[in-house]
Specification:
Layout: H1 3-47, H2 57-66, H3 71-79, H4 82-99, H5 105-132, E1 149-152, E2 161-168, E3 171-179, H6 181-185, E4 195-202, E5 207-212
Parallel strand pairs: 3-5
Antiparallel strand pairs: 1-2, 1-4, 2-3, 4-5
Helix pairs in contact: 1-4, 4-5
C-alpha cells in the first residue's frame, strides 16, 4: 500500500472514529467544564444589565498576559487537532491517488499537499459547520458557542490572534480568538467587523479557535 492510499485510509478511519465516539466525548467535555463556563456567563450578565453590551477587555487582557508565552503551544495544539489532521490526510491521499497516473513523483507530492488544504478548507470545513449546527448543546456554557458566528472586534495580528464578540444566552461576550492554521496558510487576514465561525473553544483559558465564513 503506497503513501497516498495509506493516508486516505487513515484519514477515513479517523473521521469514522470521530463520528462514532465524538458525541459521547463532547458530552463529557461539556459536563466537566460547565461550572466554569456558567460562572463566566453570569459575570457578564451583571455587567450587561440594562441593555449595555458586556465588555471583557480588562479580564481578557489579564488572561492574555498570563498565557502570552504559550502562543507556540496553542499553535501546536491547533495543527494537531484530530479533525484538521484527518481531513488533511484524507485530502492528501485522495488527491494523490487520483493524480498518480498522470503526474510524476515531485509534482504529485505538491499537488497532493495543495489538494489536502483545499479539501479541508472548501469541503470538510463547510460540511462540519453544517452538521454542527444540528448538534445538541447544553445552554449557558461557552462550549455551546461552537459552530456559531462571531464578529472580529478589531483586525487580527500577524500571529492570527484577536478579540471577537459573540452572543451567548442573550449576553454579548468578548474573548481572545485564534484563526485556524489552514486559513492562515492561505494568507487570510481578518478585518474588524468580519464575520467568523467558532470551531473550538477552551473554557479554562476563555479562548476560541475561529475560521473564515
Amino acid at each position: 500500500m503506497d503513501l497516498y492510499i495509506s493516508s486516505m485510509v487513515l484519514g477515513a478511519v479517523g473521521f469514522t472514529a470521530m463520528a462514532l465516539g465524538g458525541l459521547g466525548s463532547r458530552g463529557a467535555h461539556h459536563g466537566g467544564t460547565s461550572g466554569h463556563s456558567h460562572g463566566l456567563v453570569h459575570g457578564h450578565s451583571h455587567a450587561g444589565h440594562g441593555g449595555h453590551v458586556a465588555h471583557g477587555h480588562g479580564g481578557h487582557a489579564h488572561g492574555g498576559h498570563g498565557h502570552g508565552g504559550g502562543i507556540g503551544g496553542r499553535t501546536f495544539w491547533l495543527i494537531t487537532s484530530p479533525r484538521f489532521l484527518f481531513s488533511l490526510m484524507l485530502g492528501f491521499g485522495a488527491t494523490g491517488a487520483m493524480l498518480h497516473p498522470v503526474l510524476p513523483g515531485p509534482f504529485l507530492l505538491g499537488a497532493a499537499a495543495i489538494g489536502a488544504v483545499a479539501f479541508e478548507r472548501f469541503i470538510v470545513s463547510p460540511l462540519w459547520n453544517f452538521t454542527m449546527r444540528f448538534a445538541s448543546r447544553p445552554a449557558s456554557t461557552l462550549e455551546s458557542a461552537v459552530a456559531d458566528e462571531a464578529v472580529a472586534v478589531s483586525a487580527f495580528d500577524d500571529n492570527g490572534q484577536g478579540i471577537v464578540s459573540l452572543e451567548l444566552d442573550g449576553q454579548v461576550l468578548q474573548i481572545l480568538a485564534t484563526l485556524q492554521p489552514q486559513d492562515r496558510l492561505l494568507g487570510t487576514r481578518v478585518r474588524a467587523g468580519q464575520r467568523l465561525r467558532i470551531d473550538d473553544v477552551n473554557a479554562e483559558r476563555q479562548t476560541c479557535t475561529v475560521s473564515i465564513l
